[in-house]
Design goal:
The complex is a heterotetramer, with two copies of chain A (140 residues) and two copies of chain C (425 residues).
Chain A (H helix, E strand, L loop, with lengths): L2 H5 L2 H8 L12 E7 L4 E9 L6 E9 L2 H14 L4 H6 L2 H8 L8 H4 L1 H13 L9 E2 L3
Parallel strand pairs in A: 1-4
Antiparallel strand pairs in A: 1-2, 2-3
Helix pairs in contact in A: 2-3
Chain C lengths: L10 H5 L8 E2 L14 E2 L1 E2 L10 H14 L9 H21 L7 E4 L2 H16 L5 E5 L4 H14 L2 E5 L9 H7 L4 E7 L11 H10 L3 E5 L11 H4 L3 E5 L10 E5 L1 H6 L10 E4 L4 E3 L13 H17 L1 H22 L2 E4 L9 E6 L4 H10 L2 E2 L1 E3 L4 H7 L4 E5 L6 H18 L1
Parallel strand pairs in C: 3-15, 5-6, 5-7, 7-8, 8-9
Antiparallel strand pairs in C: 1-2, 4-10, 9-10, 11-12, 13-14, 14-17, 16-17
Bound molecules: pyridoxal-5'-phosphate (2 copies).
Amino acid sequence: MGLGSDMYRQQILDHYKNPRNYGELEEPDFTHVGENPSCGDTIQMDVGLDEAGETIESVRFNGDGCAISMASASMLSERLHGMAVEELHEMDTDDVTEMLGVDISPMRVKCAVLGRQVAQDGSKIHRDELDPDDRTITEE
Amino acid sequence: MGLGSDMYRQQILDHYKNPRNYGELEEPDFTHVGENPSCGDTIQMDVGLDEAGETIESVRFNGDGCAISMASASMLSERLHGMAVEELHEMDTDDVTEMLGVDISPMRVKCAVLGRQVAQDGSKIHRDELDPDDRTITEE
Amino acid sequence: MGVQEQYSFDVEALRADFPVLDRKVGGDPESPGEGPGDDTPLVYLDNAATSHTPDPVVDTVADYYRSYNANVHRGIHQLSQEASVAYEEAHDTVADFVGAAGREEIVFTKNTTEAMNLVAYAWGLEELGPGDNVVLTEMEHHASLVTWQQIGKRTGADVRFVDVTDEGRLDMDDAADLIDDDTQMVSVVHVSNTLGTINPIGELADLAHDHDAYVFADGAQSVPNRAVDVKELGVDFFAFSAHKMCGPTGIGALYGREEILDSMQPYLYGGDMIRRVSFEDSTWEDLPWKFEAGTPSIAQGIGFAAAIEYLEEIGMDRVEAHEDLLAEYAHDELTALGGVEIYGPPGDDRGGLVAFNVEGVHAHDLSSILNDYGIAVRAGDHCTQPLHDEMGVAATARASFYLYNTIEEIDALVEAVGEARDLFA
Amino acid sequence: MGVQEQYSFDVEALRADFPVLDRKVGGDPESPGEGPGDDTPLVYLDNAATSHTPDPVVDTVADYYRSYNANVHRGIHQLSQEASVAYEEAHDTVADFVGAAGREEIVFTKNTTEAMNLVAYAWGLEELGPGDNVVLTEMEHHASLVTWQQIGKRTGADVRFVDVTDEGRLDMDDAADLIDDDTQMVSVVHVSNTLGTINPIGELADLAHDHDAYVFADGAQSVPNRAVDVKELGVDFFAFSAHKMCGPTGIGALYGREEILDSMQPYLYGGDMIRRVSFEDSTWEDLPWKFEAGTPSIAQGIGFAAAIEYLEEIGMDRVEAHEDLLAEYAHDELTALGGVEIYGPPGDDRGGLVAFNVEGVHAHDLSSILNDYGIAVRAGDHCTQPLHDEMGVAATARASFYLYNTIEEIDALVEAVGEARDLFA
Ligand SMILES: Cc1ncc(COP(=O)(O)O)c(C=O)c1O
Ligand SMILES: Cc1ncc(COP(=O)(O)O)c(C=O)c1O
């Protein structure tokens, strides 16, 4: 079997079937929605920060999509707890695949990175580094 | 050598350099102009008929064009003398190449048949079988 | 299975013409053509997206480049003569294949999409205006849906969509309601690339013609699979793509009734489509060249004709019988598997494709998993997003068959779909 | 002759990549590819119409069909991944080759002609109106001349033509007069396919930009022959065709500055160019895909990149040096022959082609006679009818050279032209 089968290891399936931190925050510091139009994936990320606004204290996500995008968002939501906002901003695609622990086939990378992109863009909007009208879309 | 060289036998060159019946009729029964746009060939045919309108009595042609179209019109002008109009109408491409006595390469056939086409179309217009607004064009 | 005995021609022998079918997959997709890194044999079931191209067609194209490559139409030298004859006769071959009167009714385009745009630009932009309407169906491919939608916006014409029933068929009562005296064009897909529905083009053409509207049938999914006669169908325009019928990419055909094409203004301007040009104005070449501006897709046009000759050697009736066999078998087996929802009409009444979803499995995950088994299906909206919205799903998986596919390949598909279902259960 | 020693690369070795150069001509033109009925070796001097395609490019195309043929962009299965990567990267290769910023500035079209029409439709129809003007030159190819002329008629914009001097150059004073604040577009051929003139694109771009007009340079005859950098040239749009530069037929490229392409509405509508579609409206994909509707010319796009790699291996500077050598030699020898009128600038300052007439011999007769000697030249108006009207001739014969042509082939040309002249004397 090729790359793909590897993608559906137990851990991924587990996060897909039992997403962690699924839902919404009552008073998020920022919330943002993004989509991956070709898959029809949509993810919302709600994030709460510490007083200084530098560390992530709470995360909820919700949405609809394929196993890769949902499991990736779920795993990310756990990872983000206690993470410095700076560190979130520095996460790249390799960090996401490392987090997933599986090889992601090229055509599915946009699914895998959707959650991270939504969190980063939401934070950038919060910091006025990005226009809130910019939609988050993961597609080359 | 291939087909083409054959096309420029002495007879063709002679008719090209010394066109027979070149000019215009003072009182033609019909006159018609046609062109072959891709070569830029233009030929006018003036035809005079007998009283009954059934036999060709006089022919003049003039125009501008390649050796094949000019020589063919010149040879046709000789051939038409005394020909029944019916016979003119029956002339097809084979008759033209036979008259020329050489093989005509496919891309030059439209040059070779221009004179004949002009004569035929002119006669048809004269007989009200063709709309005088129809231009004669030899191109597939 | 014994089903093979029902094959209408020797499928195994024919597969030898398609070396790509011997591909093993699992290699590095960043290095295409460099061969497999794995041993999984390819099972290619994405034929509605594009079919494979048999060696005789590939060789015909290569032979053009190697033996008589030249520009067409206006050259006096021999290579140009040879290329011109071959390219122009390719139009005759295509015309014959779909029952057109002759080359004057066949314009070569890039693909079906461009054929649709040609008519939308050259006829639609000129003829449509406020008060007019264009009638489409809810199952139109984006090629016609987006094109007429946008031309509608630009001209002020209304665009209407004939309902699709729960069984995946056109609601012909709705069609009769929507098509009225203000209708100028009815643009309808002949065989749906998502539902597999074979639409009643003749009936729609009668409805349209009763109201003096034209009919444009999108034959992208019908011409590859069945004998089509545009005169019998009664359509005014018809379009299809070579790459879905054993031909090269980059070439397709627009059929148009001669009187209509003749009355239309040109679409693309440039060389080869003119008769006389001055600085002030231009006049146009005869059909079909009036609509083929610039150096045409010569090698691809010649390859298109070779593809048609390939299909004709098998016989379109046999191709259709084979597609019917595979579609019905796949439909039945996927149904029997359980947990699979199939879209469109029953198995014995559809084109050679089956779109479906597996309970609890996103179509993209399904496609990824099938890929691990070497099975190529398409997952997505198949360029019918609004139809998917109507069906209430973001995506479906679609297995689509062609003349080289086998019963065993469908068995492999069904087995892998079962595995995926179980993995996610 | 000793001139061969000046070759900038091993021309004889390179000819082995082009099997068509071994053709003998004189066979039956109705049976293309069936081989010669005669023994005359082909001397192919019609490269400005279309160049030949070397085996590595033909093989790349065949390999696509035989190894990873699939539709692009949206497939998850491996073949589609491989085809997508190769097709999309072909845009990068083309972008690099002409100095574009990246694939977002390169739209694949059918040919140069379609690229011109794309801009005329997507930009011109929207932006032009009465009071505006478009500035062309008297030496434009029909691809731009007819296109802007007709778009001008449809929008009410004025179309102006920069004079050509007796030496076959643009009258830059006239250009400065014609380009004014109402000018929206200056569309100019980079290297004239009739005169061989290399136009001062940079100067024209400056003139245009001073008046906030765009510049579209037609690179159909420049990109095949010389290193081109669109940023250095300062153009806003640029177009060229693969079939004139060792590539397949059916594919070309439009370069457009990203901001401009981004601001333009789409041209063709359909699949692959949309982001979201509903029955009511649609949104568009990112560049360049927004302008590539429907299944693209996948094999041809990949073949285009292979052609560029082939040329780059030789080196564009060397290709240019070879063209210069041949053009100057042909110009000098034809001049020395006597009775030959040559159009355009002197031999040491022109692209790799020479258009001429022989006293007393119609260009079509000349071409027929040359064909008997196996020599393929083009005779006609070369899609510059108005320029020919200005020059006062209906047709010219044109010999055009490419990287595989030799000094001996030009000697053969000159000798045969002499024979033709004597035959008609
Ligand atoms: C200067 C010039 N522009 C445009 C074209 C048109 O190119 P194509 O026919 O590939 O569209 C040509 C070639 O015929 C040309 O020489
Ligand atoms: C029904 C239908 N119409 C139109 C098209 C568009 O064809 P192409 O992409 O070749 O233009 C397709 C294929 O994608 C199709 O299935």
